[in-house]
Amino acid sequence: MNIDSINNGIVIDHIKAGMAMKIYDFLELGALDCPVAIIKNAMSNKMGKKDIIKIDSQLNLDLNALGYIDPEITINIIKDGVRIKKYHPELPETITNIIRCKNPRCITSIEQELPHVFKLVDREKDEYRCMYCESKPN
């Protein structure tokens, strides 16, 4: 299989096998008007199998939210065919609409148009709580 390299864009690497579509949907990559490649179950010496997403465009996205979805992800920023930055996203201070509050008494259960916002309360334990009711995600 041959997937072309990208000139200017983003490569999201070291995604747990099978998680690429969740990230694709979360980032709403289907709405982009640029080439996007999803490589599923690629062989990896480190992980056994992994997924990779290549986006051939510079995007203005907060990719740190990916740190909650999969903290082992590597994000590579490509410019003029050369990787100029490589990093692992950190856990964001807040995450919106990635997880949903399960508390039936939470305002988000009644006011369904409200965003589900969770704030980081303990970075060492990767613990988030609902901004409205302080519940932990399940």
Total strand count, please? 8
| First and last CA, distance | 39 Å
The oligomeric state of the chains shown is single chain
Q: How many domain regions?
A: 2
- How large, in whole angstroms, is the Cα Rg? 17 Å
Query: In CATH terms, what is the fold-level topology of the largest domain?
Result: Alpha-Beta Plaits
What number is the mean pLDDT?
A: 89
Please report which band the strand proportion falls in: under 5%, 5-15%, 15-25%, 25-35%, 35-45% or over 45%: 35-45%
Please write the CATH class name of the largest domain: Alpha Beta
- What is the SS-derived class? mainly beta
Q: Give the CATH architecture of the largest domain.
A: 2-Layer Sandwich
| Low-confidence runs of at least 5 consecutive residues | none
Number of discrete helical segments: 3
Proportion of residues in helical segments:
10-25%
Strand order of the largest sheet: 2-3-1-4-5
Global shape = elongated
Order of helices and strands: EHEEHEEEHEE
Structure overview:
This protein has 138 residues and is mainly β. The protein folds into two domains: 9-87, Aspartate carbamoyltransferase regulatory subunit, N-terminal domain (Alpha-Beta Plaits, 2-Layer Sandwich); 94-130, no CATH class. Helix content is 11%, strand content 36%. The protein is built from three helices and eight strands, in the order βαββαβββαββ. It has a five-stranded antiparallel sheet with strand order 2-3-1-4-5, with helices on one face. A three-stranded antiparallel sheet has the order 6-7-8, with no helix packed on it. A hairpin with a 3-residue loop joins strand 2 and strand 3 (48-55). The radius of gyration is 17 Å and the shape is elongated. The chain starts with 8 loop residues before the first strand and ends in an 8-residue tail after the last strand. The model has no long low-confidence stretch (mean pLDDT 89).
